[in-house]
Amino acid sequence: MITVTDLRKVYRQGKKEVVALDGVTLSVPKGSIHGIIGHSGAGKSTLVRCLTLLDRPTSGSVSIDGTELSSVRDSEIRTARRRIGMVFQHANLMDSRTAAGNVAHPLELVKTPKDQTQAKVAGLLKLVGLEGFENAYPSQLSGGQRQRVGIARALASDPDVLLCDEPTSALDPATTNEILDLIQDLTTRLQLTVLIITHEMNVVKRVCDSVSLLFKGRIIEHGALQDVAGNLESKLARALLPLPPSEPLQGTLEDGPVLEILFAGDSAKEPVITGVARHFDIDLNVLAGSVETLGGQQFGHLRVQLAGNADSGAVLDYLHDRGISAKFAASEAAIESETQLQHQATGEKK
Amino acid sequence: MNEIFANPVLAKALPEAIVETLQMVGISAFFTVLIGLPLGVFLHVTAPGGLRPMPVTNRVMSDVIVNITRSIPFAILMVALIPLARLLTGTSLGPVAASVSLSIGTIPFFARLVETCLRDVHIGKIDAAQVMGSTTMQVINKVMLRESLPALVAATTTTVVTLVGYSAMAGLVGGGGLGKLAYNYGFQRFDVTVMIVTIVLIIVLVQIIQLVGEWIARSLDHR
Asked: Which of A9, A141, A147, A181 has the fewest CB atoms within 10 Å distance of its CB?
């Protein structure tokens, strides 16, 4: 279990103060994977550096299973760090060490006896599926294999928390999935607490139990994956279940109102669209849609256009009665300007 | 060929000159690495943004010692250091005395090369080592020096080659060796054979150093 409370980090740049983290609070229970997603410049890197104590937070606290990390003295910082295993974007292995040598590195630092080290290294390499690669140098391994060595190394000090900083951003899609599956498998097997920092929504979709959206140094949305995905108002839901841009269709439905509908869980299984068509005896067109399974639950996100004569208010009530979130779709122009605003906001920060 | 073997100067003075040159290069290379390596590490680690930033000390070390000594032409430095050589070795003549000024001349040069080698170690590797719980010394020994070892060997090779050149100059002011032989006999007595033979020997020496250095660097490089 890792708990972060009101973490703030302010950098001084000459006379100017730059607030990189503005009160981040989050908590991840043992055995679960939490994703932190955000654009570049949102404060992800700073958060990682504060969690690993490479940087001291300005205020706030980080604790693992009740042990406070952020206030330990400098002499104890090394012991505290060993409770966190870290996986890096580019693995950051030592080129002069073999796979086994890299995994043994954290054990060497605390003068673990040789035979103990050997047994442990062999076990860890087996755990990450790299049996027989003990004597390979990083340059002889593929990106995915290097990341596996990185994960084995991170686990060598028996950490409680595994912190993954963009663990798959340098990998191709197939390898990404392999590495994510490995992380998920290890989480349950070793009862780890895992934090994955990423900008890839795909990572969150595949392995995370819960997710936080980091924006300008603050967590602006967070929750269990199913909860955030099922909420039509949430920015995360829009990112988790994105709709392609669509023009209203030409033809009979030209002037009809456009609705956005989000199904979650059981409601996703019901034939709602045909239900609406029959109940109100109207035509409707699906303009865009995406259907996905997240955390074992089905989700559907649709943009539909009703016939011009339809009573859209009644249709919304009908959907709400059935536990489906639905609303008038913002016009394309509005969506456009919203995203532009976001771009400007991130642009200013850089 | 006969001319070479028949040359009395070469027959008598050449073996001694070779030994003297090797002595000068060997002794000063040893001290250059012994002192220059820690100095380079210190400069890198104490630089702003380094592992243990010490801005004032770093500035002073970097500017005053390294840059000033490096900006003095070696020929002048060598002459200026003769009193120091006498103080340390009891004489101002011979290869051992010359090694004092040779070392002092190349230590800053080598320290700068070491600094560059260490700067090329990817910052992610150092982050990784720190997150594992390494002490500063463990980061220096197990990551910085070990990861840059091939580059450090290449830097040492360059330094030793430079020392061969400097040792010829040192020969002129009392150091002896091939430089003195070439100057005294080849230049001042117009003995072309001596001149050519010393040049060839120096080229061969540099070539051997270069090849051995490259071979060691390659065998250490696993990138």
From this structure: A181
For residues A258 and A121, state if they share a domain: no
Looking at the partner chain, which of A92, A139, A157 has a beta carbon nearest the beta carbon of B125?
A: A92
pLDDT given for residue A116 in this prediction = 93
Q: Are strands A67-68 and A258-264 parallel, antiparallel or unpaired?
A: unpaired
Give the torsion through C-alpha atoms of B80, B82, B87, B89, to 10 deg: 140
Question: Do residues A216 and A317 both lie within one domain?
Answer: no
The boundaries of the domain holding residue A252 are 237-346
| A318 near B CB under 8 A | no
Q: Say if residues B199 and B213 touch (Cβ distance below 8 Å).
A: no
* A4-18, A164-178, A251-265: least confidently modelled range: A251-265
What band does B9 get if pLDDT is binned at 50, 70 and 90? Answer: confident
Model's pTM, two decimal places? 0.84
CB contact under 8 A, B222 and A137: yes
Q: How far is CA A23 from CA A20, A40, A84, A109, A197, in A?
A: 10, 18, 22, 34, 17
The mean pLDDT of A114-130, rounded to a whole number, is: 94
- CB–CB contact A54 B131 (8 Å): yes
Cβ–Cβ gap B222/A138 under 8 Å? yes
* Short-list B117, B107, B94, B98, CA closest to B31: B107
Which tens digits make up the pLDDT trace of B136-157?
A: 999 999 999 999 999 999 999 9
* A243 shares a domain with A276: yes
pLDDT for the residue numbered A254:
61
B125 vs A contacts (CB less than 8 Å): 92-94
Is A182 in the same domain as A265? no
Residues A124 and A256 in one domain: no
Whether the complex's predicted ipTM surpasses the cut of 0.90: no
**Domain's final residue, options A229, A264, A291:** A229
Domain identity same for A76 and A177? yes
Which range among A103-107, A250-254, B85-89, B91-95 shows the weakest confidence by mean pLDDT?
A: A250-254
Give the domain-ending residue among A205, A229, A253.
A229
Q: Residue A195 carries which side chain, given as an amino acid letter?
A: L
CA distance B132 to chain A (A): 6
